[in-house]
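All the exercises in this workshop are built on plain-text protein records. There is nothing in a record beyond a sequence line and a structure line. A learned vocabulary of local backbone shapes supplies the integers on the structure line. The question running through the whole workshop is how a given chain folds. Here is such a record, shown just as it appears in the course material:

***
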Amino acid sequence: MYVNRIGTFRDHPDLYGVSVYFQGCDAKPKCYMCHNPETWHLSEEYKRPSEVVTKIIDEKLSSLLRYFPKAALVFLGGEPLAPYNREEMLSLSKMFKEKYGERLTVVLFTWRLPKDIVKENLLKYVQYVDEFVMGRYLHTYRRDGFPASKNQIHIDRRTFERMIEAVLRRGHYEGSVFVRKRI
């Protein structure tokens, strides 16, 4: 598992949480003035045994949930949906969502938008995500609020599913080619 760092941060507007910064970002080009450029490059230096990562996250979540009724598990990076991070993100989100249930809000930060999730066939990897922060960070639209760039969207699961349905109604992708449905 490629992890740059794990910490207890405020990467959610309302909840304290445990943030997992994955190492490696597959966005091309990279976001200008990215908040975490140190997470861009994939390196064996950041390879961690999944048992160690799981234990750290669990200890931090357990501690937070002793004091708060609800906490967030936030996946950022780098890029959690990069090909080399997907399976680990899915495994962690499933494990902790099953363990903590409604007391845990799983949040995914990704440069991808709903159309990219469909195009890249990534729906299975986000099935345990409760909230999404989607879109590239654009420094031109930087703000002090949440999310950090005005063009990014912060949506809940229900809104995400409606957006996915809208993308699917318009057609589907075959390889890299989008095929419109015939009516």
Q: What stands out?
A: Residues 50-67 form the longest helix (18 residues). The helical segments are 50-67, 86-100, 114-119, 157-170. Residues 3-180 form one domain.
